[in-house]
Write a structure and sequence with these properties.
Blueprint: H1 10-16, H2 28-34, H3 46-77, H4 84-89, E1 111-112, E2 119-120, H5 123-154, H6 157-169, H7 175-194, H8 202-226, H9 230-238, H10 243-271, H11 275-280, H12 299-306, H13 315-350
Antiparallel strand pairs: 1-2
Helix pairs in contact: 3-13, 5-8, 5-10, 6-8, 7-8, 8-10, 9-10, 10-13, 12-13
């Protein structure tokens, strides 16, 4: 019985092919081809440099556009602090604090810019915006995250291929269509079901608004859940965990940064919505923070409804642009806080 020839070493193999070899066994010609001499410089291809310049230009353009938008809005609002016409008609403290008006027994918050005298208190507008936004988030966050969990972890492949595109299609429906749907159908249904005194109120606007937030939260949360390494789920199942335990204790904690990002983006989408709240909220600036069954008027709806009917430079014009500045600032601050919270949470979870 013949024995097999011993395996040739890399050096022997290299020599058998007629090539010199380095001490590590790599042929000399291969080593020289892979490791160029020290000091060798490489010229970056032209299309690489062009692509880099284009990407940099696009990024700077986006930042510049945001800055210019803020500057334009602020330029129209800032003169309110020194214009004599504005000071004669509007008091800066009346924009925030309640005031005693003729016909009222106590100080009240009123937004009535076309009255005599005009009243420009902005608190009812921000209270209305927060009421609609928070109520919409209470509806859309559980629905969006729950749908993402079902599609990512439980749904069969055929069901996933149908449900995911259908939910994402909601993001493509124009907001004016959803507002009309809420105005004609949701308002009647909600009034018959809950017995609302006001047919158009914060609840009706929030129901329609949640239809625009769910696709945002669902898409980002589902992508975050799908990005969790499958080895974590398989390890938990191998240790005897049930599927719901794997979902709630393994997959969801690992995907929390992505889910939180979806919630933050959904909140920004909700607070900046215009057409739905303009058509379905009732547009009455009623200062009742904890009563969701009353009509409300939001900041965005006020700007959209009133800006086209006033003269340029009028005190009313200045106040509306000031509302735009405040809305921009609030949205920016909330996004920054959300981004910092997501980064901190991701750092804690990944121990990076």
């Amino acid at each position: 019985m013949s024995t097999a020839d011993p395996a040739m070493s890399p050096l022997t193999s290299a020599k058998s092919h007629g090539a010199d070899a380095t001490p590590s066994g790599v042929p000399t010609d291969v080593a020289e081809r892979k490791a160029p001499p020290l000091g060798t410089t490489f010229k970056t291809p032209m299309w690489h440099r062009v692509a880099e310049k284009v990407i940099t230009f696009m990024a700077l353009t986006a930042v510049a556009a945001i800055v210019l938008i803020f500057v334009f809005i602020g330029r129209e609002a800032v003169p309110m602090f020194w214009e004599a016409e504005f000071a004669h008609e509007v008091s800066l403290q009346d924009l925030v604090f309640a005031r005693q008006w003729n016909g009222y027994d106590e100080p009240v918050y009123i937004w009535q810019p076309v009255g005599t005298p005009p009243k420009y208190n902005i608190l009812p507008l921000f209270v209305g915006a927060l009421k609609v936004t928070l109520l919409a988030m209470m509806m859309s966050v559980p629905l969006g995250i729950g749908a993402a969990l079902f599609v990512a972890l439980y749904a069969p492949r055929k069901v996933r291929e149908v449900v995911k595109p259908m939910v994402e299609l909601l993001a493509g429906i124009p907001s004016v269509v959803l507002g009309f749907f809420a105005l004609m159908l949701v308002a009647t249904w909600a009034q018959d079901l809950f017995g609302f005194r006001f047919r158009l109120n914060a609840v009706v606007a929030a129901i329609a608004l949640s239809l625009t937030i769910v696709p945002v939260i669902f898409t980002i949360a589902e992508d975050a859940l799908q990005a969790v390494p499958r080895s974590l789920s398989e390890a938990a199942l191998a240790l005897g965990a049930r599927k719901y335990q794997v979902a709630l204790r393994v997959v969801v904690p690992a995907a929390i940064p992505g889910i939180a990002a979806g919630v933050v983006l959904g909140f920004g989408r909700a607070i900046g919505e215009t057409m739905i709240v303009l058509m379905a909220s009732g547009n009455a600036a009623i200062m009742e923070p904890f009563n969701f069954a009353t009509s409300v008027r939001t900041v965005t709806a006020s700007i959209a409804a009133e800006l086209g009917e006033i003269a340029v430079g009028d005190p009313h014009w200045r106040v509306l642009f000031m509302l735009g500045v405040l809305l921009f600032a609030v949205t920016f601050v909330l996004n920054v806080i959300g981004d910092l919270a997501i980064r901190r949470l991701q750092k804690r979870l990944t121990a990076a």
